[in-house]
Amino acid sequence: MKRKYFSTIALAFATSVIAFAAHAADVKNIVIVHGALADGSGWRQATEILERRGFNVTIVQEPITSLADDVAATNRVLDLQDGPTLLVGHSYGGMVITEAGNSPNVAGLVYVAAFQPDKGESLISLASSKPAGGMNIRETKDGKYLYLDPAAFANDFAADLPKNEAAFLAKSQVFASKEAFSAKVGDPAWKAKKSWAIVATEDRSINPDLERDMAKRAGSTVTEIKASHAVFASQPEKVADVIAKAAEAAGK
């Protein structure tokens, strides 16, 4: 009888140890969700830095046709990851990771000059609460999509990048549907998981004070970097540092 009792205790202990080990596993997978009016190519330098540090990095090229479509695109990439994953979002990508971050294999969230919504909030409602500098946003002829005037792109989005790099970002920008910008977020993952936020102090696309307020509300660990909205491209080393430290902390 005693032997059976101790065997049961031993089994329960072993199970709890395995569960704890799984929870505290090293986070080596990083999935990045780019923002609107950009694509994933601008993350190349940060990606290469993280890969040299031993991380497996994947970038979601979401269509920005609707928030639901973009969450689904992110979930498809998350499903391919082997083990716990750190989910990173820039700008509009913060809206996406706030919902996609509820996936069970997501260990933490990093918001990079990003929107960090609460339940029921949309990108438009947040952006209008604390307007940034006037962005020269235009509509496509069908009235369904938005884009940033290429002539104004460098000033509004990437003022601290070399002209040729800013010009390439302007040419490769992904148009955003109005539906994506007006969609309201469901239950935010940051309420249940650790989060980090980078505030771009020279941001002209999202008011830096709005970035600070959203991060404070979420209880995120905040790092401020003197950079434009394109901080991921202009300061890739500093952004990679924050992501790497977040991955380490998320695994504890």
TrEMBL record:
UniProtKB keywords: Hydrolase, Signal
Classification via SUPFAM superfamilies: alpha/beta-Hydrolases
GO terms assigned for molecular function: hydrolase activity
Signal sequence residues: 1-24
Lineage top rank: taxon: Bacteria
Presence of keyword Chloroplast: no
Pfam families (UniProt xref): Abhydrolase_6
Domain AB hydrolase-1 span(s) in chain numbering: 30-242
PANTHER family: AB HYDROLASE-1 DOMAIN-CONTAINING PROTEIN-RELATED, ESTERASE_LIPASE_THIOESTERASE DOMAIN-CONTAINING PROTEIN
Protein name: Alpha/beta hydrolase
Organism in which the protein naturally occurs: Rhizobium mesosinicum
Organism phylogeny: Bacteria, Pseudomonadati, Pseudomonadota, Alphaproteobacteria, Hyphomicrobiales
